[in-house]
Automatic annotation (TrEMBL):
Its EC number is 1.5.5.2. Pathway: Amino-acid degradation; L-proline degradation into L-glutamate; L-glutamate from L-proline: step 1/2. It comes from the Bacteria. It is an enzyme of class 1 (oxidoreductase). This is proline dehydrogenase. Keywords: FAD, Flavoprotein, Nucleotide-binding, Oxidoreductase, Proline metabolism. It catalyses: L-proline + a quinone = (S)-1-pyrroline-5-carboxylate + a quinol + H(+). InterPro entries: FAD-linked_oxidoreductase-like, PRODH_bac_arc, Proline_DH_dom, Proline_oxidase. Its cofactor is FAD. Pfam families: Pro_dh. Residues 44-298 form the Proline dehydrogenase domain.
Amino acid sequence: MVSMVLKPMFLYLSKNKVLNRGAKRWGLKMGAKQVVAGVTIDDAMRTVSELNEKGLVATVDHLGEFITSREEAIESTNYCIETLKAISKTGVTCNLSLKLTQLGLDVERELCYENMRKIVGTAYELGNFVRIDMEDYAHCQQTLDILADLRKEFPNSVGTVIQAYLYRAAEDVSDLQGVNLRLVKGAYKEPSEVAFQDKKDVDDNYLSIIKQHLRSGSYTAIATHDHMIIDKVKSFCEEEGIAKSQFEFQMLYGFRKELQEQIVKEGYTMRVYVPYGTDWYGYFMRRLAERPQNVSFAIRGLLSK
């Protein structure tokens, strides 16, 4: 009952532009530093280095919200390019995740595409990889169209995310056979016209598309904190003779650290999603919405001041 009240509240707060602007001035408060790896590229690189020392690999994401101008989109693009250069310079094992709206998708499609082309071109030159995060349903087809255009020039340097709660997920996975995909359950609130509403239906479809992509021989990133799903994937891959080199598990920075390290000890690739930047507020509120028990992060953060 508490979670039913808190979830919509935190999602509402995540979209508050006034609080978001204030959060940029506050610095990492309310326990956010437990799930956000600092505000600068150097902060992110230090965190990734510490993860690498434990056998974990990473993907970093420079957080951004409410991009409404060409200037903001270009600034974000340049920051992504500098992040890729920092990864190369420091030698950490890490790639880059980003959102297309942060690069101007809602401003102008061609602006976003050209920004992405610069970023993915840099990743190609440096031998790295860029993951396009999937956003809400309204941006889904646009994201896949831009991915298709980028792969014509950089086929192995860019991939995306498919969300299992969408009815179209299985068809999209089929169309993207051979593409490095991150598979997730999905975190946005979508209507019944386009998405499963029941948790069991989402879980069943999630396992189904994981098996579908693995069976096709495609590299698969399974992004979940659900240990039951993880165990089922392990069993499936053992039964099917699927090599550990064909897939990886992914989790968020700051969550289920013991499980992350256990997965590494078992010989699997474990990639940690590491967000950073001054624009941390919206991300943090969404994490609280997903798991209201994470409110303890905020309480501990406030009490420690």
